[in-house]
Design a protein that fits this description.
Helix content is about 90%, strand content about 0%. Helix 1 packs antiparallel against helix 5 (about 110-135) and helix 4 (about 80-105) packs antiparallel against helix 5 (about 110-135). With about 140 residues, the protein is mostly helical. It has one domain: Up-down Bundle (Four Helix Bundle (Hemerythrin (Met), subunit A)), CATH 1.20.120. The longest helix is centred in the middle third of the chain and has 30 residues, at about 45-75.
Length: about 140
Amino acid sequence: MSRIAGALAVVGGAMLVVGGFVSTSGSTLENARDAVSAWMGGSDQNGMIVTALTVMIHIALLGGFAVILGGYLMWKGFDIAGKVCVWLGAGLGGMSLVVAGVVAYASGGWGAFVTSSMTFVGMGLALSIAARRLA
């Protein structure tokens, strides 16, 4: 059963990585910049907030790699270590989904959010959670 869980986790992790790369595209970061400027107005700290959001998105991208590592560990029979890696990676992937959702809400770009980030990250999270429960 841990081989199936490992395979699910690797596929879920790959989807999280793809969703993370989609989130770091120029249009998403431009939407974040627009959302911050709309919320904060002409504040001096806009650049710092955009930088913080960008760093959070890149850290969340690492969650996909943690899920892939966890899937490999589950595949090799190290179920507890694999579950921990999948758990940490899914948490980071969830953070990515929340940040992308907030940016989409603030900028009004729900169409791009639903078609790109929601599809890859959401399905990656679902597969990762299913793999963790299956192992």
